[in-house]
Write a structure and sequence with these properties.
Chain lengths: ~240, ~240
């Protein structure tokens, strides 16, 4: 069985958290809505299909008979299969809890440039975005990043990883959070760096994992840009 | 083992989705941060404890040695134990996927009165809230409620429930969504009612379940009010 990933072409977005897990485990997968031979409407058409378990939004993963949506749910499903989470129930719930907190942070980062409506352009809500982004960088990022720093510090099984004694999908997602925030909010991240040494070390550790390093150097890895979740607007990084 | 629920006193909030599952299954639980004998700082003090698996935010559930946070994660854990989800993995992933989509909707509802910062009062962001709430009622509620209506329509195992052939925690949460939206946005919900007959019928079906009916009539059920996720401001329901 081959995993099939459905996600918007052209942006890393939420699909990237799934890609990093598949790439980190060295598991082949097919991008069904990306590539030169894919019709531009493939994803929209597939979303419109009459299926018993419809996704509300991409990303979704097709694995044999299953179609699974919601990023954290996909990782809950893939984690044991890719050996990217410990075996016991307590650790799996803990990893998933962290992934859901990452999902909350991702939403807050998205909403910092789209605080009014995801259906409007940034330019139609940039005054509100300036206010929300100021709160994000001053209040919310310190709270979330401080939380993940404490999680790394308190992990009794490792000095480096978030869950258990080995690399998990949570670590791969935290790498993407740090990378994305550095792209979107370079000034804020320079200010926050000294207080979060474990989180930044985890970023570097993940980037140096051989499979991830090869992936990051490949054309499969999409660059951050001005259409995704992590966007850089100088006005929002004061 | 007795389940212990930690959540802010005085608001239904996200804790209510957990309460409805426990009440719907007839399982006793202890509210650790609510009641006349509970210190006002109990929750804040407990959150500050140095534990290996800290919650980022309430609600969290203590079940023996486990402390589990994130509403959907708590329901993922409780579902099989309370017999509020089918046994097979595909159904459990599907139920959890729906619960995560409900969680996304809950965040959007919250942000309609707090689009700029959760740390500010509504009165400090009410102009932005008017814009965001207009988008919520015109664009987002039809999209989310239409999705859940389609889920009910397409369920091959039931004409009434969302997942499988019996009551699940997803149904209990959808009840709370409809009830909360009717409190917060009565005009919008009257407008949306004709297009969502299955969802409204599910609300009534859940409300009439004997254990839920008894709970709703009890003092354990907290009324919606102006401090929670579902708030009624006439200016936001135009």
């Amino acid at each position: 069985m081959e995993y099939e990933l459905w996600y918007w072409d052209g942006i890393p977005g939420r699909g990237e958290f799934v890609r990093l897990a598949l790439e980190g485990a060295g598991i082949p997968y097919v991008e069904r809505a990306r590539g030169p031979d894919v019709d531009d409407n493939a994803l929209v058409d597939d979303m419109a299909r009459d299926r018993p378990h419809p996704p509300f939004a991409p990303p979704y993963l097709v694995a044999g008979q299953l179609t699974i949506a919601q990023t954290a749910n996909i990782l809950l499903f893939l984690g044991p299969r890719l050996k990217l989470v410990p075996d016991d129930e307590a650790s799996r719930l803990w990893a998933h809890q962290l992934q859901l907190t990452i999902a909350d942070l991702v939403t807050e980062i998205h909403d910092s440039h789209h605080p009014i409506a995801s259906g409007l352009y940034y330019e139609e809500q940039k005054e509100e975005a300036a206010r929300r982004a100021a709160d994000l960088t001053a209040e919310r990022l310190p709270k979330f990043l401080g939380y993940f720093e404490a999680v790394l510090e308190r992990n009794p099984d490792s000095d480096a990883y978030a869950v258990g004694a080995a690399l998990s999908y949570v670590d791969l997602s935290l790498f993407q959070i740090v990378a994305g925030l550095r792209y979107a909010f370079p000034k804020a991240m320079r200010r926050l760096a000294p207080g979060h040494p474990r989180l930044l070390a985890l970023h570097d550790l993940v980037a140096a994992e051989p499979r991830i390093a090869a992936y990051l150097a490949s054309r499969r890895r999409l660059a951050f840009n001005q259409s995704g979740i992590f966007r850089h607007y100088a006005a929002l990084d004061q």
